[in-house]
Design brief:
Layout: E1 2-5, E2 8-11, H1 17-68, H2 77-84, E3 93-98, E4 105-111, E5 119-124
Antiparallel strand pairs: 1-2, 3-4, 4-5
């Protein structure tokens, strides 16, 4: 850009402070959006692990029901592995089988290190 100073034209060789601040603000906003997107991706991956393990537990419970004519309850993942003969090694969730009746049961997935409020569950109907 050319400017006129005392009758002469010269080239501007630097950015103004406002231009630099605007660029920094735009970059910060883009970084925040990327970080939020990354966190959503991580949470979806964790949920996928929980869904997969819940499905495995449900199928193992159904096989057990077919053999012994009853579902079993378990208080944690280790207990589930013992009573159902599984080898689950989840990274992010601890699982429980609760609410066992003659016809159904509930599988709960609790994030490791969090309180019981954050539950993701699945119900296996007969």
């Amino acid at each position: 850009m050319l400017r006129k100073a005392t009758g002469q034209f010269f080239l501007r060789k630097a950015f103004t402070m406002i231009e630099i601040i605007v660029v920094v603000i735009v970059l910060c906003i883009m970084a925040c959006l990327a970080f939020v997107s990354y966190l959503n991706y991580v949470n979806k991956a964790k949920s996928a692990e929980a869904s997969t393990h819940i499905g495995v537990i449900q199928r193992a419970e159904q096989v057990r029901k077919d053999i012994t004519d009853e579902y079993v309850e378990a208080k944690d993942t280790e207990g589930i592995n013992d009573v159902l003969g599984l080898d689950l090694r989840p990274k992010y969730y601890d699982f429980q089988v609760v609410g066992v009746t003659e016809d159904d049961f509930i599988v709960l997935a609790k994030l490791i290190g969090e309180k019981l409020e954050s539950l993701s569950g699945g119900v296996m109907p007969r």
